[in-house]
């Protein structure tokens, strides 16, 4: 079995997003989705011998087929609107933070309106208070899309494996709402781009510690894109709380094209890899001709953002099992927040994914 390093795609612009903080249960806490995440990963991958290339610009075509154009326009303009409204001065809020979300319970069947006030619009397009927008957020999120599409271009051009060092991450973004420290759904954009390139069926495998509710929602009623995820059980009190349960198997044409494998808190390699094996079987049965991996490494034992206990060996073995499918693969970065270990965790996962 041969191992050829993945081509790594990156962009300086992905460092421009500096959330500054998260608002969690009403309390301002230090942010964990830091620019240093990307620099630590890049350093580790360069040490591992991967070729590293800069992303090239792409049009909004695929982006606007995956996301509601109004969400895209909101993200493009909300920071400048926030500044124009004076919120950084009075009351002194230096990031865009929602204070009201128009939930189904609030509207109770009333038509959805387009809010005039920017502080109301913030909650129209974001479903939590953790996912703050600042002066470089749009530029970074849009650069992550270019990173992703550049990785797709490499795979379509014949590379067996390309990795997009996308930051901020994306798998919590639905068609028309962002959240979970995510702004645009990079994995969903990769899958759609692979479909557009001629792959009749695509599989997305999400190994982030948290369920990718956004990616699931994008493809929940489609048969051509399988979404399969292993993650900590949301029923045990973990984000995204309302999605990621085993009985969510797709809807209408997509029935059977969604697989969730939730794990109990503290699950070690053995249980995690058993879930990966189930997912590999599902991908093979789906008949996918291309693979997207949402490569989060926050299931690792040292990571502060989840209770799972996956080791470096577990990540490499997961990569190897996915590689055994023999599919052209685009991997995009999702979570992973323990700065001292996340670079090596990504490196060993890619080492496994590169085995052919």
What would you say this structure looks like, in words?
There is one protein chain. The protein is α/β, with parallel strands linked by helices. It has one domain: Histone deacetylase domain (Arginase, Chain A), CATH 3.40.800.20. It contains eleven helices and ten strands. The strands form two sheets. An eight-stranded parallel beta sheet has the order 4-1-5-10-9-6-7-8, with helices on both faces. A two-stranded antiparallel ribbon has the order 2-3. Helix 1 crosses helix 11. The longest helix has 20 residues. The N and C termini lie close together (6 Å).
Give the domain tally.
Answer: 1
How many strand elements? 10
CATH superfamily, please? Histone deacetylase domain
Q: Could you list the spans in which at least 5 consecutive residues all have pLDDT below 50? A: none
Cα-based radius of gyration, to the nearest Å: 19 Å
Distance between the termini: 6 Å
Assign a percent range to the helix content: 25-40%
User: β content, as a range?
Assistant: 5-15%
Write the H/E string, N to C. EEEHEHHHHHEHEHEEHEHEH
Can you tell me the overall shape?
globular
Q: What about the largest sheet?
A: 8 strands, parallel
By secondary-structure content and strand pairing, the structural class works out as alpha/beta
Q: Given the structure, what is the number of helices?
A: 11
What is the CATH topology descriptor? Arginase, Chain A
Mean of pLDDT: 97
CATH level-two architecture: 3-Layer(aba) Sandwich
The top-level CATH class is Alpha Beta
The largest beta-sheet arranges its strands as 4-1-5-10-9-6-7-8
């Amino acid at each position: 079995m041969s191992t050829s390093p993945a081509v790594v795609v990156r962009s300086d612009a992905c460092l421009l997003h500096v959330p500054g903080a998260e608002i969690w249960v009403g309390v301002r806490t230090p942010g964990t989705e830091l620019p240093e995440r990307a620099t630590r990963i890049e350093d580790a991958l360069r040490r591992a011998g991967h070729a590293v290339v800069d992303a090239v610009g792409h049009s909004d075509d695929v982006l606007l087929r995956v996301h509601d154009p109004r969400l895209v326009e909101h993200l493009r303009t909300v920071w400048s609107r926030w500044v124009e409204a004076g919120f950084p001065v009075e009351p002194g809020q230096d990031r865009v933070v929602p204070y009201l979300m128009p939930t189904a319970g609030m509207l109770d069947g009333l038509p959805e309106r387009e809010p005039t006030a920017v502080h109301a619009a913030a909650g129209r397009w974001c479903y939590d208070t953790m996912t703050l927008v600042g002066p470089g957020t749009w530029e970074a999120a849009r650069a992550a899309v270019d990173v992703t599409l550049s990785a797709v271009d490499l795979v379509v051009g014949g590379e067996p494996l390309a990795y997009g060092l996308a930051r901020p991450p994306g798998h919590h973004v639905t068609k028309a709402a962002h959240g979970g420290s995510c702004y645009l759904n990079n994995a969903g954009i990769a899958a759609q781009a692979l479909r557009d390139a001629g792959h009749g069926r695509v599989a997305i495998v999400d190994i982030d510690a948290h369920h990718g509710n956004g990616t699931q929602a994008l493809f929940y009623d489609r048969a051509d894109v399988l979404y399969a995820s292993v993650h900590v059980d949301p029923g045990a009190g973990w984000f995204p709380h309302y999605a990621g349960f085993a009985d969510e198997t797709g809807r209408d044409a997509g029935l059977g094209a969604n697989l969730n494998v939730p794990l109990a808190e503290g699950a070690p390699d053995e249980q995690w890899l058993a879930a990966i094996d189930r997912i590999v079987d599902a991908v093979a049965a789906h008949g996918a001709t291309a693979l997207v991996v949402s490569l989060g490494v926050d299931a690792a034992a040292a990571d502060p953002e989840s209770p799972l206990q996956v080791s470096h060996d577990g990540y490499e073995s997961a990569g190897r099992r996915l590689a055994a499918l023999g599919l052209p693969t685009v991997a995009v970065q999702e979570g992973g927040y323990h700065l001292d270990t996340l670079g090596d965790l990504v490196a060993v996962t890619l080492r496994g994914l590169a085995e052919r």
